[in-house]
Amino acid sequence: MALTPSRPPAPWQASSPDPLMFPTPAKRPAHPAPEPEQQQPASKRRRLTLEREPESDASTSTSTRTTPSMIVAGSQMAHDADAPSDLSDTPMTPTPLKDTFYVSEVPLEPPEEKPPPPLPDALLLLMIPQLVLEPPSSPNYVAALYVSWLAMRRCLRMDLTPEVELRALTGQAEVALLVLDAAVEEPWVKGVADVAENGITRGLQIVKQHPTLAYYASPLSFLQVRLAVLRGPTKRALNLSRQTHAEYSQPNSTSDASWLHYLHHSHVLSTLAPSQITPQLGHLATPPRVDPLFTRIHSVLRLTYLLLHQPEDFPAECRSLLSSFSDPSALQASDASLLLITQVLSLLHSSSSPATSDSCAFHSKLLDSLPALLDDILSASPPPAPKASKTVPILFPSPPKKLLLSLACLVAAAASRDASGRQSKRGIWAAEGLKLFEEEMDELPRWYSLKEKKALEKQLHEVRALLLCELISVAIMRSEFQEAKKHLDSLELYTSSVDLFTQFSPIISLLHGRLAHSVFSVSRAKDCYFLASHLAKEQDDTGIRLSATLDLLGLKLGLGEDVQVDSEDLLLKLVDCNDENLNEPARVFRAIAAKEIHKSKQHLKFALDSATLRQDNYLRLLVLSITASHYQLTKASRAVSALQACRQLCLSLGAPPEGEKKPTSTYGNASIGLWVGEKYAELLQRQGKDKQAKKQEGINHALRERWTRDQEEMARLFAVQQEEITA
C-alpha cells in the first residue's frame, strides 16, 4: 500500500514523541525532478484528509515522516546522489506528513451466496395454518379455516416420516376443533369431527410404535378430550379426561407437565353441568405443590366450586388465597387478573350470605381496595417474552380486560347496596362500568375460536345491560324518576338491538313495575309484576320470579289488603332461603303481616341489624319507618327518634351534587319523606309543639307539591308510551 504526499506542511516540534519516526535528508532541491511513471495495479483509492498546519519559511529544511508500512516515492531518493541515506545517523528535525494523501485498497470480493435448500412440500403445508389463520373478528376467518383444513388433509396424503405425520395429525385435530367451535354451516364441514377423531387415534398408535415420539401423546390426549367434550356424550368425556389425568399426571410431581394435565382435567370438569361433576371434584382438595401461578389458578377453580356447592368452606380458603398475593401494584398482569377474579368471587359470596360484623368489615375492605386494583390492571404491561431461545411460554386464556373490569364494576355496584349520599357508591360503580364500553376492545388473539368470540360478545352485552339495570334501581330509590325512565328506555333499546330482549324481559318488566309502584300507579305496577313473574317462570328464573312476587305482596300490604293467607307460605319460604337478598326484605314484610307485636319487633330487629352491617340505607329506611309506626301510639319518644333518623336517610337518598343549591325540602326520597313528615307533624301537635309543627307543615307542603308533580309527569310519560305501543 503506497502513501503519496501532496504538499509539505509546517515542521513539527523537535520534541514530538513518535518512536516510529526515521530521519530524512537535510536538503531537497527547489525543483525536484518529476517522478517516473510507474504502472499501478487497478485498485480503489480513498482520500484521507488531516488537519492542516501553517506552512513554514521556504528556506527551512523539510523532512518526511514515515512508518515501517510506508514506502517513500523513488524520485526523492534519486535526485541527489551525494545526499545521506535515509538510514544515516544525521540528526534532522522531522516534519509531519502532508494533510492529504491517498490510500490504495485491495477490493474485497463478496462471498458467493448459496441459495437456501428448497422447503419440502410437507413442511410448507404444515406451516400454512400459522401463515393464514386470522383472529375470529376478521371477515376472512372462515376462509382461513378452510385453507388450513385443506393444507392438513393434503399433507397427510403424502409419504411422511412418523414425526412429520404426527405433526400433521396434531395440526389437523387443532384445526378441526376451531372449525367445530365456529359452528360453520358449510358443505366441507361435514365429517370434520370424524376425520379428526380417526386422526387422533392414528397418532396415538404411531406413538406406541415409536417410543422416541412419546412427547406427542400428551397433546393428542388433550385434543381427544376436548373433542369428546364438544361431541359428547358427557360420560365418555369424563372417562377420557380421568384416564388422561391418571396416566400423565403424577400426584407428587413438581413438573409443569403434570400440572398442565391437572388443570386441564379441572377445566374440563368445570365446563360440564354441576350435577355431572360433583362426584368427580374430590381431587381439587389436594393439589400438587409447584409454581405459585399454577397453585393460584387451581385455587380459583376450587373457589368457583365451593361458592356453589360448599359455601361454608368458602371464606377460609378465599382469605388464604387473597393473603398469598403481594402488593397489587407490583403484580404482573396475570396475577392481578387472578386477584381481581378472587375478589369478585368473594363479593358474590358475601352478598348472598348472612351478614356478620367480621364478614361485612372484610367485604368493605375489598370494595375500598378495588379501584386501585382496577387501575393497576389497566396499566399493567404484558408478561415479558422468554429470553432463552428454547423456552416455550405457557399461555393461559384469561378474559379480556374490558370484560373483566366491567364485570368487577357490576359486582361491586350490586355488593355496595348503598344508594345514599351526594354520589352514591352503587351509582358510581355502575357509571364507571358503562364508561368502559365507550372504548374499543383490544383485538382478540389468533387462538380464540369463533364460538369463544361470540360468547365473549354476548357476555359483554349482558354485563352492559345489567349495569343499566343498576342505574335504574339507584334512580328509583333516589326518586329520580325521569332519570330512571330514560335509563329504562335505553335498556329496552339496547337489549333489542343485541337480541337480548327476550332474555331480559322478566327484569325489564320488574323494573317497570317498581317505577310505577314508586309513583303510585297501582294498576300498571300490578300488571308489570304479574308479567315479570310469568316470564320468569317460563325461563325458569327463580330469583326474578320470587322478587316479583315479593314486590306484589308489598304493594298489596301498602294498599291494606288482607294477604296473610296468600303470603304466609311465601314469606316462610323466603325467610328460610339461603339468598340474603330475598331473606331480609321478606322479614320486613313478615313483620308487617304479623298479628303479634313481639314477633313483628323480632323480625324488624333482625332486619335492621343486617341492613346496618351491610350499609343498606334504603332497607334501613323501610325498617325504621315501620318501627316508628309501631311506637306512634305507645311510646312517642322512640317514635320521634325513629322518624328523625328516617328524615336524615330520606335526605341522603337524593342529595344534590356538591355545589348545587336546592332547598332541603325538594330533594331526597319523595314518597317516604312525605309519609315521615306527616307522622312527625302529628307527634309534634300531640306534644303541644305548635311552632315546630307549623314549620313541619310547610316542609310537608313542599314535599306534597313535588310528589304530585312527579306523579303527573310520570303519568304523562306512561300515557305517551302506551299510545306508542297501541299505535
UniProtKB/TrEMBL annotation:
Subcellular location field: Nucleus
Predominant place of localization: nucleus
Signal sequence residues: none
Cell division is among the record's keywords: yes
Region (Disordered): 1-69
Bias type Low complexity, positions: 57-69
One Pfam family linked to the record: Cohesin_load
GO CC, any one term: nucleus
Entry similarity comment: Belongs to the SCC4/mau-2 family.
Protein name per its UniProtKB record: Uncharacterized protein
Species of provenance: Calocera cornea HHB12733
